[in-house]
User: What shape does this take?
Amino acid sequence: MNDEPKRYHHGDLRRAMLDTAMEMLAEDNGWQFTLRELARRAGVSHTASYKHFPDKAALLAELALIGMDRLRVALLAARPPAPATLREQFLEMSRAYVRFGTANPNLYRLMFSADARAAASLRLKERGEAALAVLVELIEEGQGTGWLRRREVYEQTSAGWAHLHGVTLLTMDGLLGPDTVRSDHAAEAALQILLEGLEAEKS
Amino acid sequence: MNDEPKRYHHGDLRRAMLDTAMEMLAEDNGWQFTLRELARRAGVSHTASYKHFPDKAALLAELALIGMDRLRVALLAARPPAPATLREQFLEMSRAYVRFGTANPNLYRLMFSADARAAASLRLKERGEAALAVLVELIEEGQGTGWLRRREVYEQTSAGWAHLHGVTLLTMDGLLGPDTVRSDHAAEAALQILLEGLEAEKS
DNA sequence: GCGATGAAGTTACTATTGTCAACATATGTT
DNA sequence: AACATATGTTGACAATAGTAACTTCATCGC
Assistant: This one.
């Protein structure tokens, strides 16, 4: 790496465009950015992207996939080390999930948008499930130790994912608490309530 | 109504455009429909809409508001009559919520989209809360009768809305169950799990 | 070495779009 | 009857996604 600045063939434009697109995604207009502006920032002509992506939708789909991977990494990184209870692990990872969304609102929205789905439905679903795999494991383990109620694992997984998804989006939209001040607290409370629905009755 | 076919001033173009736009919203491209196509279908010139809406975003925002109202109506209509328990009422309205979303996916997405939010943030939040008011009442009542755990009402409301929102969106995206076949069952189970998190311990 | 082959970029063009400004026509108020 | 206003229309503009045809360059068989 660290080649001379001006190559005539840029080296790795595909990567560069994805990177710049990811930056632009974080800005105000979400993924309504223009392919031409993207090319401008990457320092190439406005049709260069077509050598790497069939169309804009494909580019967006790629970003969404990357987003799913980052979510997976974020969840794994948030898992607390050894002496933590399963409950603590679950809570911490749930918080990380919500934080990932609120920290990258446009990316998160894109990951579940109809636009991205249209261009990468299958792969997106796979990568999404891969991201959630850690939580699924945790649920399985929790049923084993008696921490969680016995139920079909996919039922609890569905409930958990849906809950996290909803908390994340409503928080992003400023719709969660009665006001923005208490929205963090509302999110935290919502997570507790989810857990109470998943956990076995206290002995 | 039922005027002669060709008026020079159309009568109520604003309403007509909202109606046609609502139809187009249900089609494949969501709210990516073009203002010109909308005008074409309404039988007017491509700039007629600007006499009624400042720009496309405003039109979309209006649709989103209408959507919130329809959601409110759908929830109210789903409330079961007299001899139903609070639990039954809550469940039935929850199902209605999810059904509303899956029956009008693009409208539902629009209602929570960044696009609509940008043009009607305040009013959208109000109308959304109005739609949910029935559920809030139910929660308050449920705390009173001892059906629900005692907690800040807004905490349970947040958890409930988030959960419904998540179930609705994931179902729409075909991400809920392990496969599409069991997605209905997954949604139903998720609702049960939510309730178990809200309800007081059985005596 | 070396020439051809194809990948990576560019320039020029098309069809479409949102929006604006200037104009036209109906409506209703006085 | 005449004017002011709301409602529509025509025609333009700048910007966009995408195509086609051309150029440049790097690599691989020889």
